[in-house]
Amino acid sequence: MGNIPTITKNLLIINVLAFLATLVIQSSSGIDLNNILGLHFFRASEFRIYQLVTYMFMHGGFAHLFFNMFALWMFGVVVEGVWGPRKFLFYYIACGIGAGLMQELAQFVEIYLQLNAQAPLGVGDAFIVMGQLANQLNGLTTVGASGAIYAILLAFGMIFPENKIFIFPIPIPIKAKWFVMGYAALELYQAMAGTGGNVAHLAHLGGMIFGFFMIRYWQRHPSHNFSRRRGTNAFERMKNFYEKHHQPTPESPREETRAESDWDYNARRKAEQDEVDRILDKIRKSGYDSLTREEKQRLFDQSKRQ
Q1: Which residue has the higher pLDDT, 265 or 158?
Q2: Is the pLDDT of residue 306 over 70?
Q3: Dihedral over Cα of 255, 257, 258, 263: its sign
Q4: How many helices (DSSP H) and strands (DSSP E) are in the chain?
Q5: Alpha-carbon distance 136 to 143, whole Å?
Q6: Least buried of 40, 159, 232, 285, by fewest C-beta within 10 Å?
């Protein structure tokens, strides 16, 4: 747990504690937290606006919790490492809310079609009828972090599209971008075919859709610190931490001030930047502790020149 970034770690802890609290409270008092904090249909009598946030911390069973938390750990660690805690938390919560809104819309359309099949009516009339059925509609409750988790999966695929990953039971590694597109296509098919029982497939797609447009916006507005290259900001913070907590070695002699051609100067600067990029990429893949003493010193020396 010590190597898991702050937000990912806290999300894992909160989800597990919420699940345990649900079990304890239900067994001791009969109160179902999933019914209170789960997302009800917006025309149901028990719907509350805060449920758009609380529902993503509730789960319907151990398997539901386990697979969501496993995916959060597997992909959230990497995405948070690139974006940093604030952007990662904003993205997670916003996509979770977006998934909930998509689920609400899907439920509205489904109920409207059922009512319209019995007697043709307009959308406004259906809205009124649903209000009259508010108590019966309380059974439509959504719980789970899946919408936000699918958004994290999408983020990983968009940041590292060419990275190959192993996914059980597929026997060969596949590129992240194909894995994400395949998952999205599967969710869309199951949503359209009505398969999957009580699984909220459109909520999963909603999280991915909101995530896609958010990431595209950040890609087109680099000032918001999003891109794979700007993701090295997370590693720059590690470098700054190292500078503050380690005394520098005796200062090396100043660089010679002799004249240097533009060609030689540009070649030297490019070689230095390539080496720093290689070190930052090594941190991303294996962590800061994987650096050699020379590589740490190189980062420190480079920071002094900037």
Answers
A1: 158
A2: no
A3: positive
A4: 12, 4
A5: 18
A6: 285
